[in-house]
């Protein structure tokens, strides 16, 4: 379903952090949200699923305004992976099963367990299934939270720095899987991400945030070194290696 975000505005105690942010995303697309530390990327993501209540704006999914829905209904449409996850006294399996909660009426069904098993398998987490989440490494835990979001079978994935704790192989595997699931299941993914090379590899479009608002909304092919300089204040070379666009700070 198409995601349309219109005029989202948010302030923490009258300190404005997000001003009039609008964008739309077709099903099957990954949007990379870029901006310096403190630009408001996490805040924006949390405004989209009402963890924070924006003072203005709307979030339409296939014509329905998500901000008018209650939390349970939002969770059937949107899954959110936070930047920090404290972990719980649960096994990996039960943590991922929590992703099914918005869909479960009385008790988990055979299908719920099947979805969890499939996701654990796809993410290479099956061998940890019975381990307590608190006994995992930071990167393993980050993958479990991503698995929980995928088990939720949402229309929209909101991912806040989903690769920050991952090694090179897992960064590529997790972002590759996100892109594959987004394409296969026609989801929309909004991903805040600091690693520009990873972003250029896996995002289809970019939302660059500067001065609390949208600085640029662009396709991957149209990202320029000037945009990166203006957003991050760093001169870079934007070049191509083996068919991949890469950023090299100068
Ligand atoms: N709960 C809060 N109360 C008050 N101010 C906050 C709160 N959370 C964040 N902020 C402030 O809002 C601004 C945006 O924070 P946010 O976490 O959205 O930025 P970000 O772009 O995600 O940063 P980073 O890249 O460092 O994760 C920052 O100036 C931050 O200090």
Automatic annotation (TrEMBL):
Transmembrane segments: none annotated. This is ABC transporter ATP-binding protein. Part of the ABC transporter complex HmuTUV involved in hemin import. Responsible for energy coupling to the transport system. GO terms for molecular function: ATP binding; ATP hydrolysis activity. Keywords: ATP-binding, Nucleotide-binding, Translocase, Transport. Pfam families: ABC_tran. Residues 3-236 form the ABC transporter domain. Gene3D superfamilies: P-loop containing nucleotide triphosphate hydrolases. InterPro entries: AAA+_ATPase, ABC_transporter-like_ATP-bd, ABC_transporter-like_CS, P-loop_NTPase.
């Amino acid at each position: 379903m198409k995601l349309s975000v219109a005029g989202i505005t948010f302030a923490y105690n009258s300190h404005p952090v997000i001003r009039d942010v609008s964008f739309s995303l077709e099903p099957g697309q990954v949007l990379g949200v870029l901006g310096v530390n403190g630009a408001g990327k996490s805040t924006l993501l949390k405004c989209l699923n009402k963890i924070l209540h924006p003072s203005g704006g709307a979030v339409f999914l296939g014509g329905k305004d998500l901000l008018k829905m209650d939390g349970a209904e939002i969770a059937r449409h949107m899954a959110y992976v936070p930047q920090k996850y404290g972990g719980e006294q649960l096994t990996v399996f039960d943590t991922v099963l929590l992703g099914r909660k918005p869909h479960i009426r009385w008790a988990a069904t055979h299908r719920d367990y099947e979805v969890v098993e499939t996701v654990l398998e796809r993410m290479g987490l099956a061998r940890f299934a019975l381990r307590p989440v608190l006994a995992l490494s930071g990167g393993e835990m980050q993958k479990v939270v991503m698995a929980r979001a995928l088990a939720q079978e949402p229309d929209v994935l909101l991912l806040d720095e989903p690769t920050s704790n991952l090694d090179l192989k897992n960064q590529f595997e997790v972002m590759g899987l996100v892109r594959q699931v987004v394409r296969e299941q026609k989801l929309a993914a909004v991903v805040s991400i600091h690693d520009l090379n990873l972003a250029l590899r896996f995002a289809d479009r970019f939302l660059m945030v500067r001065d609390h608002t949208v600085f640029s909304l662009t396709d991957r092919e149209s990202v320029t070194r000037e945009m990166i300089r203006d957003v991050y204040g760093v001169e870079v070379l934007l070049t191509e290696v083996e068919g991949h666009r890469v950023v090299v700070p100068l």
